[in-house]
Amino acid sequence: MRSGQLSLHLGCCRSADERMTAEDDFVIEEVRDLDTAWPVLEPLLLESHAYYMPIVGCGPPDDWRREVQEGFQPGAAALILLAKVANEAAAFANAAIRSSPGSPPQRFAYLDNVYVREGMRGRGIGRRLLAGVEAWAAAKGADTIRLDVFANNDLGFELWQRNGFEVRLHTMSRPVKAWP
Fold first, then answer.
1. Distance in angstroms (rounded) separating the CA atoms of residues 50 and 55
2. What confidence tens digit (pLDDT) does each residue in 140-154 have?
3. Residue 57, domain CATH
4. Does 167 map to a domain?
5. What is the pLDDT of residues 29-55, one digit of tens each?
6. 3-class SS at 4?
7. Does any domain span residue 139?
8. Phi and psi (nearest 5°) for 41?
9. Packing angle between helix 64-71 and helix 34-56, nearest 10 degrees?
10. Does residue 88 lie in a domain region?
């Protein structure tokens, strides 16, 4: 397999006539067994928590490992992609197929997380993770990809806009207050 190619069987790899660039020193693999991949994913997840703490305003819950391991299970309706540079973990993305029974009913891919290590940014890894998610979503019959971006995550917001995402909905939240 050429460096920089997706190792997925989703029809999302480069064509043979595309030229390699200096940025193409990574591979993207689909995680099929979370237990096997956990030692590689856990440090990336810890880094992503540290990145998001100032944006979110709090750290992960005490039982975050259990929650992530339950929520990240790869399968027919869930995907985890892992990018490696020189066989070292550089980035990950996870997505799931969801349905909305509204009017009209929709089947979409929800892109839950994308995280690229700081020293690995600007190499096209995020774009290639997104391409892998998009190919997987198309193969699963999804018509759109949806995601959430924290309002004060300027880097993330700019990344998604550059990749064709548009604001279609404003989600608002507040802490739950105890009932009197």
1. 10
2. 999 999 999 988 888
3. 3.40.630.30
4. no
5. 999 999 999 999 999 999 998 888 888
6. coil
7. yes
8. -75, -35
9. 120
10. yes
